[in-house]
């Protein structure tokens, strides 16, 4: 057994470990690899490959077929979710940026996934009829405006299936949630605090069990609690 000194020496930087894990994941096709490279080059906010691979596993494990995504960007996550869920799946993805919508639609078309993925133009914080019409959802991915995470989660509970799952990306926000006082820029500090408050909010939800995972930039997986005839207090 390693002693304290030896254990301390074996500690590895989180980013280094994440990069090591990401090296074992691979995208399904060349277009996805190009999307990953473009996102890295000009900082388009897409899910990190290791987090995306885990999300695909959740979809395979649960057999999720009706999926809602809040935050399309260039269509990377919706495409990879579609590949995991299969041709019979239905993915509704919400985006308000017109340039992003056009690029996502083109990427989706290039992989012939138009029958699986439907982009809804609009603000995810608002009541969108197309989102309501396709409810309930087996899985919901929250990957939109971080300052609105709590509001988005509350809206998601209304359209989630009985045994549905809500996945939230970026809940560690580049590790800044562990050192909020060290973030000196006021606007960034407020945003980090919002993410930290959201994490505490998730942990306090009586109707959900949430686990926080150190994959990608941090992922929270929230599942509805199953209540028995005695109200879950047996």
UniProtKB/TrEMBL annotation:
<feature type="binding site">
    <location>
        <position position="95"/>
    </location>
    <ligand>
        <name>S-adenosyl-L-methionine</name>
    </ligand>
</feature>
<keyword id="KW-0489">Methyltransferase</keyword>
<dbReference type="Pfam" id="PF01596">
    <property type="entry name" value="Methyltransf_3"/>
</dbReference>
<feature type="binding site">
    <location>
        <position position="143"/>
    </location>
    <ligand>
        <name>S-adenosyl-L-methionine</name>
    </ligand>
</feature>
<dbReference type="InterPro" id="IPR029063">
    <property type="entry name" value="SAM-dependent_MTases_sf"/>
</dbReference>
<keyword id="KW-0819">tRNA processing</keyword>
<dbReference type="GO" id="GO:0000287">
    <property type="term" value="F:magnesium ion binding"/>
</dbReference>
<dbReference type="GO" id="GO:0008757">
    <property type="term" value="F:S-adenosylmethionine-dependent methyltransferase activity"/>
</dbReference>
<keyword id="KW-0808">Transferase</keyword>
<dbReference type="InterPro" id="IPR043675">
    <property type="entry name" value="TrmR_methyltr"/>
</dbReference>
<dbReference type="InterPro" id="IPR002935">
    <property type="entry name" value="SAM_O-MeTrfase"/>
</dbReference>
<comment type="subunit">
    <text>Homodimer.</text>
</comment>
<protein>
    <recommendedName>
        <fullName>tRNA 5-hydroxyuridine methyltransferase</fullName>
        <ecNumber>2.1.1.-</ecNumber>
    </recommendedName>
</protein>
<keyword id="KW-0949">S-adenosyl-L-methionine</keyword>
<feature type="binding site">
    <location>
        <position position="77"/>
    </location>
    <ligand>
        <name>S-adenosyl-L-methionine</name>
    </ligand>
</feature>
<feature type="binding site">
    <location>
        <position position="143"/>
    </location>
    <ligand>
        <name>Mg(2+)</name>
    </ligand>
</feature>
<keyword id="KW-0479">Metal-binding</keyword>
<dbReference type="InterPro" id="IPR050362">
    <property type="entry name" value="Cation-dep_OMT"/>
</dbReference>
<feature type="binding site">
    <location>
        <position position="47"/>
    </location>
    <ligand>
        <name>S-adenosyl-L-methionine</name>
    </ligand>
</feature>
<feature type="binding site">
    <location>
        <position position="170"/>
    </location>
    <ligand>
        <name>Mg(2+)</name>
    </ligand>
</feature>
<keyword id="KW-0460">Magnesium</keyword>
<dbReference type="GO" id="GO:0016300">
    <property type="term" value="F:tRNA (uridine) methyltransferase activity"/>
</dbReference>
<dbReference type="GO" id="GO:0008171">
    <property type="term" value="F:O-methyltransferase activity"/>
</dbReference>
<comment type="function">
    <text>Catalyzes the methylation of 5-hydroxyuridine (ho5U) to form 5-methoxyuridine (mo5U) at position 34 in tRNAs.</text>
</comment>
<feature type="binding site">
    <location>
        <position position="169"/>
    </location>
    <ligand>
        <name>Mg(2+)</name>
    </ligand>
</feature>
<feature type="binding site">
    <location>
        <begin position="123"/>
        <end position="124"/>
    </location>
    <ligand>
        <name>S-adenosyl-L-methionine</name>
    </ligand>
</feature>
<dbReference type="GO" id="GO:0030488">
    <property type="term" value="P:tRNA methylation"/>
</dbReference>
<comment type="similarity">
    <text>Belongs to the class I-like SAM-binding methyltransferase superfamily. Cation-dependent O-methyltransferase family.</text>
</comment>
């Amino acid at each position: 057994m390693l002693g304290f000194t030896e254990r301390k020496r074996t500690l590895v930087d989180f980013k280094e470990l994440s990069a090591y894990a990401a090296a074992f994941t691979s995208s399904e096709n060349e277009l996805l690899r190009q999307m990953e490279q473009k996102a890295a080059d000009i900082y388009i906010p897409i899910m990190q490959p290791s987090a995306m691979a885990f999300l695909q596993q959740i979809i395979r494990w649960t057999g999720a077929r009706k999926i809602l995504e809040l935050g399309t960007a260039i269509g990377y996550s919706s495409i990879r979710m579609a590949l995991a869920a299969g041709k019979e799946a239905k993915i509704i993805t919400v985006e308000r940026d017109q340039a992003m919508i056009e690029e996502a639609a083109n990427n989706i078309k290039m992989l012939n996934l138009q029958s699986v993925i439907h982009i809804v133009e609009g603000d995810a914080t608002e009541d969108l009829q197309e989102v309501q019409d396709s409810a309930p959802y087996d899985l919901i991915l929250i990957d939109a405006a971080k300052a609105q995470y709590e509001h988005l989660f509350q809206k998601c509970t209304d359209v989630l299936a009985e045994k549905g799952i809500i996945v939230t990306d970026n809940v560690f926000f580049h590790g800044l949630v562990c050192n909020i006082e060290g973030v000196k820029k006021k606007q960034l500090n407020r945003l980090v605090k919002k993410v930290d408050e959201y994490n505490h909010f998730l942990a306090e939800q009586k109707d959900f069990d949430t686990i926080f995972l150190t994959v990608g930039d941090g992922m929270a997986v929230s599942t509805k609690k199953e209540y028995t005839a005695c109200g879950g207090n047996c």
